[in-house]
Amino acid sequence: DYENACKLPTKLVAELTRAGTRGLTAWKQARAESRFEIFRPHLETILELNRRKAMCLNDGKGGEIYDALLDEFEPGARAAQLATLFAELRAGLLPVLDAVRGAAESPDAALWRGAFASADQDRLGRTVLKAMGYDFAAGRLDVSTHPFTPGFNPGDVRITTRYDEGDLKVGLYANMHEGGHALYEMGLPAERDGEPAGAAVSLGIHESQSRLWENQVGRSRPFLAWLQGKLAEVWPDSFGGIDARALYGAANVAAPSLIRIEADELTYNLHIILRMEIERALVAGTIEVDDLPALWREKVREYLDLEVPTDREGVLQDIHWSLGIFGYFPTYALGNLYAAQIFVGARRQLPDLDAQMAAGELGGLLGWLRANVHGPGSLYPADELCVRVTGAPLTTEPFLDHVRAKFGDVYGVAI
Ligand code: ZN
Predict the structure, then answer these.
(1) pTM of whole model > 0.85?
(2) What end-to-end distance do the CA atoms of the chain give, in Å?
(3) What is the pLDDT of residues 6-35, one digit of tens each?
């Protein structure tokens, strides 16, 4: 970290900060009006500064300069390796998507919709977070426009969430997602607080913890069976008599969508793969900022089989590039892959995990994560941590097995 900081000239850091501030303002306006040309000159400046930053960090080492940007968020990751991993992932996802598209009937997300007061959703959120092991004596739950989790030290990790009074799943899964991030921060080694070794190891591992609770636990059949009881306590009319299988289906509806943050578990990674391809090519200089709106449409057509009606729902939807953040997107997909592989590891060592989840007893899982994933902090690089925890380097198979089994089950199709 020290060496990297020393490689960047003060003037460049100042320019990057200024460009990011201006870029954010321009992006907000561009997105509101769905006019890419407002953002374009800013993005050109931001990109050029980031290419200079990457060259400084690369420091004549050769290879791909995008790796130097990636390294800030996922230390040690290399674009060429990720591209191979993501190509496998995409190839594995296509037959699952095809099977889901061809299914005779699909689950219905309508169960989540209705009139649910924020105060009631907050009550449910606290129940779920307590069951996960979130320590309210060392944290808070509040509301913000975009959910996030600032961790100051393991004894002070706060969560913000957002509630949609017409759609219960928004707040429920925001709480579980942010709760997963918070449990990781709470489980970092307190005795190393303030040292590099006491910090989170990578954004991919951080995201693995949010996704593990949100998707591997929160959208599993046993957990949803427990949750149904809790839902019925708060809203007896809506959830008193429903079939647990219907709730499981409602939590696992898969349909390609234009917006990344609204994407389901099955198609989410496709949003990431296309973003990484684009930003990698931008940093390499093989495409121009001018090409982006058309390129975005082309890739969304190819990957998600959707037409992008406006840039607001296309290339302008994410905040990252406006702030000068390149190399961050891949960590979302890495998080999904790590989550699946780590969960397989947990399952191996906690044979009655399903029964525990069905009883709302999640302490065994949290204890295992504390000992194996959270407690080591940054003592091992992410790829080495993965081998220590799961016995193997990261692959796409655990995630693909997971989505084949789950969506095969939910949609009643053989994959
Ligand atoms: Zn997250």
Answers:
(1) yes
(2) 45
(3) 999 999 999 999 999 999 999 999 999 999
Chain centroid to CA 168: how far?
A: 20
Neighbours of ion ligand 1 (CB under 5 A): 207, 210
Smallest Cα–Cα separation from 345: which of 304, 395, 311?
A: 395
Span from the CA of 178 to the centroid of ligand 1 (angstroms): 7
Q: Residue 36 Cα, ligand 1 centroid: separation in angstroms?
A: 27
160 CA distance to ligand 1 centroid (A)? 12
Active-site annotation, residues: 178
How far apart are the C-alpha atoms of 221 and 251, rounded to whole Å?
9
DSSP state letter for 214: I
Measure Cα distances from 89 to 157, 328, 398, 403 in Å.
Answer: 33, 18, 11, 11
Which bin fits 159, alpha (ψ -120 to 50), beta or left (φ > 0)? beta
CA of 204 to the centre of ligand 1 (A): 9
* Cα(59) to centroid(ligand 1), Å: 31
Q: Kindly indicate the confidence band of residue 61, based on its pLDDT and cuts at 50, 70 and 90.
A: confident
Question: What digits encode the pLDDT tens for the residues 280-321?
Answer: 999 999 999 999 999 999 999 999 999 999 999 999 999 999
